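haha ok so turns out i had the wrong file open the whole time. this is the CORRECT one, sorry everyone. sequence first:
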Amino acid sequence: MIQEKIWLKLRSSFWFLPTIYGVIAIILSFLVHKIDSWLIDEYKDALPNILLTHPEVAKELYSALVTAILTLTTISISVIMAVLTTYSSQFSPRTLQDFMRSSSTHHVLGFYSFGFIFALLHLIMVDKNNLVAGPILMGVIAIVILGIFIYFIHYSSNWVHVNHLISKLRADGARVIKNNNKPSKHYLGFKHWNQAEIKTYKKQISEKLTAKKSGYIQSMDFNDLVSWAKKYETIIFMNVQVGAFVFNDYPLAYIVTINNDKPPMKELHEHIIIDSERTDLLDIEFSIQKLVDIALKAISPAVNDPHTAINCINRMGELLHELTKGNPELLYLADKQQQIRCILKQKKFEDYLYKSFYQIRHYGKHDISIMYGILEVLYKLSVVSDEQTKHKIWSFHFYIIDVIQLSELSALDAVHFNHMYDAFKTCHDKK
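then structure:
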């Protein structure tokens, strides 16, 4: 879990990759300088003149490239700020971190740092001898940096396209669902457990784990939680879930001690990461919320773009479908000996349904295209879901259609809506 904490910090740091590239540039600069000195000393007469670069020419080359790379870096940072401004004003502030954490953005700035430091150090180290490897390698680096700059302009222009962003958010959400559903070799997951046994354990709660600071639950390592519970012969009743905001001293979990020895609560704290920013590493709801934010911005009077909102609704439908396949709602974790070790507080499918559409329902209830889009997604979800999930969708749909004033719809709107509703009812065998 310590490694995960470090990874979360590094992932959000804009300095990490450029620093790594800078260190590599420093090492390579001195290495190339040594190679140049060795080549001139050993093979001065054997080297063709076309490979030799006069010191004054090398200085002009390095000086020009230092200036050029710094200019490209400035332009790239301006592009980044333009993208961030677009995201904040047109999409959602919560989508800013997706662009800022993109590995491509970090690698581009890292390679600029590499080229700048490499050229600057060679400019300083130029002496009276002719050069061989340094200018050639610098020329190659300059060409690569130009290609990276062109790529970054193309990459950034794609990011400001809302459809590209929506597809990216959907793919990220699918990745989160897949990560949450990875099988574990350290514990067994169960959807149901003997409730009489659970009630007995609840009466034996003796310890409480409280938050040391306010913030969002970014991650919980269930492998470590089960291992900790098994090691100290305890049972953990989780009181929070990933994505929840907690206050300082808020109870994170309640502990049942089977052997009456007080377990080290400080060690348990290390398996739950709390920080000021919500992340989508394990938080499925946060991935859905970003799509909801874009949909709400799209149906606002200032933007008035219902097609973008409907695209978001369709993508949320995809994620909900993947949830039905890849999120078994495991509430009870046991060790390999099938001794209960951790009782989770997990969201159910109907919770994700509500979180996906309740705000869109409120702000889009007067736009029949939005309500039609929601009903269509519910219908398609029903077609591809099992009977239990279909029942949950059917119960939820009453909440959606409750705000639709069918009597106020125009005749053609009513025809299309009723046609979709009839298909929806037929899918659920409702007459």
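The longest strand covers residues 251-257.
again sry for the mixup
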